[in-house]
Amino acid sequence: MLELIDVSVARGSVPVLEGVSLALGPGEALVLRGPNGSGKTTLLRAVAGLQPALAGRIGGQENVAYAGHADGLKASLSVSENLRFWAAAFGTRDISTALVAYDLSALEVRWAGNLSAGQKRRLGLARLLVTGRPVWVLDEPTVSLDAASVALFAAAVRAHLAQGGAALIATHIDLGLGAEVGVLDVARHRARFPAASGDEAFL
Amino acid sequence: MRALLWRDLALAVRAGGGFGLGLAFFLIVTVLVPFGVGPETARLSAIAPGILWIGALLACLLSLDRIFALDFEDGTLDLLATAPLPLEGIVAVKALAHWITTGLPLVAAAPALGIFLSLPGPGYPWLFLSLLIGTPALSVIGTFGAALTVGLKRGGLLLSLLVLPLYVPTLIFGAEAARRGAAGLPVETPLLLLAGVSAGALALLPFAAAAVLRVSLR
Which parts of the sequence belong to the ABC transporter domain (chain A) (predicted)? Predict the structure, then answer.
């Protein structure tokens, strides 16, 4: 469903990671670990197709549903309007399962601008359920979530995996997804800085 | 696509959406001109088509930086780029939404504001028609400029500097069509050239804007 072969990525023309290879099949999840600034976000953005990889091949990009640091919510739209828009953008209809999965049903008519940070995050994660895409690529999904919401999130990921989905998650905390979830430490793939990395500095 | 258009229109008319900003600016400019240049009917009616066109153009310019900047800041643009919608289509819908919320009200208001400037009677239909043909080009060119400056902090100044030269042909042919109409002269040539500018911008710039957007998102 998602396959990376010997991928290198750069941030601002400076290579940060190289030689990253991984493959995700149905029901598989992989957790990315590494210290701040080690290139997790850059790698995930390349996987989502938001920036080109320096080298290597990324297969299965069309399966990816991406959730980054920003939730992409509009403050003056209600919770259900926000979700319905993303459902329409991804060509699906049903938003009720997403509302139930993240316990948002009571907030349905509330403006997204009036939600707390954790509620916004839950809405941002609920968006993944309405995309209908099989591979979730998540960048620090548990930021500003309380323990109960993290449990909701972990349950949603487990359900997604049980339905034959896959997930690639950059996180620092233990999500309790089970022992079979793989872990990739990106620090081992840190790029050696080449002496001359192009002429970007002069532009 | 339709969902994106509805969302943009809903965002524009709700609180903080900026709908009416361009229209209010247009109104202020045209109302202030008689105070600035004096109330003589002859002088006002001579400059009315040009003033109305310049006012409409500047009013359009005012709301351009909102087209992508807001979506960029809250991460929507990243997520839209990963959605199964073509970026060219997203850009075209954004330009259409900008035209409906900014250009179309200007077109509708211009004849009424022509009264303030003693626009001669035969000029009204031509002013309306020239704005109707010309304002889509203003929105599409502006969307391209907004795509170019989307990642920049306070890119508004750069956006204006980039877009204003591109607006000049539209202004020349649009104001000329309105002026000739007001003077009772034939208007076919400037109107056709204005339509040509609009058609060219509509056909080419969504692709250019999508290309620069891909670069800006990196």
Answer: 2-203
